[in-house]
Design goal:
Blueprint (H helix, E strand, L loop, with lengths): L1 H10 L1 H25 L10 H33 L11 H31 L5 H24 L2 H30 L1
Length: 184
């Protein structure tokens, strides 16, 4: 089974990114809602909203694969120009550099797009205060998490990123419950 997975992610990098992020990103979101509401909620009656969320996550998975490729090249280019620290490829600091720039440049666009599509799917207005909190997750969660992702071989990166989405869902659900308790 593991060999089938590895062959799939190596032979079909964009499709496998869409599938992994589509499924596990949605699961992370469902877990966050489950923790917050103390019941399962699948975004409304019928499968349309849930399927729409899976499609948005899948699309984002493809953009992640492109962004990862682009930001590795970006780091190589700015190192070559002498505009960044001369860190060795494959090192922790190289992975941290890729993560840092990916999250400060691509991250806000991703978070805004994802929040916008979520709100459209759920029929909500954009909550800019909530969006600001989501942007901060790029600093406290995603830069460290993606540093671990970028240390891995390229074909395994999206898989770990997908698992980090579930971890973030658990944390966000817990934070929402704690925030609600503090207001009471």
């Amino acid at each position: 089974m593991i060999e089938s997975y590895l062959n799939f992610v190596k032979e079909y990098p964009l499709l496998s990114s869409a599938v992994q992020i589509g499924i596990l990103g949605t699961i992370g979101e469902l877990i966050a809602v489950r923790i917050r509401l103390k019941r399962w909620y699948f975004f409304g009656p019928g499968p349309v909203k849930l399927f729409s969320k899976i499609l948005v996550w899948a699309f984002l998975g493809i953009t992640f694969k492109y962004a990862f490729t682009g930001f590795f090249a970006y780091i190589d280019a700015i190192i070559a120009k002498g505009w960044w620290f001369n860190v060795a490829k494959g090192s922790f600091f190289y992975a941290l550099s890729v993560s840092f720039f990916a999250n400060i440049i691509y991250g806000p666009v991703f978070v805004t797009f994802h929040r916008f599509t979520d709100n459209k799917i759920e029929g909500k207005e954009m909550d800019w205060n909530s969006l600001t909190k989501a942007w901060w997750s790029l600093v406290w969660f995603w830069i460290p998490a993606m540093t671990t992702v970028f240390i891995l071989p390229k074909h395994l990166q999206i898989g770990l990123l997908s698992l980090w989405n579930i971890a973030l869902g658990i944390m966000l659900g817990y934070f929402a419950v704690q925030s609600q308790k503090n207001k009471e």
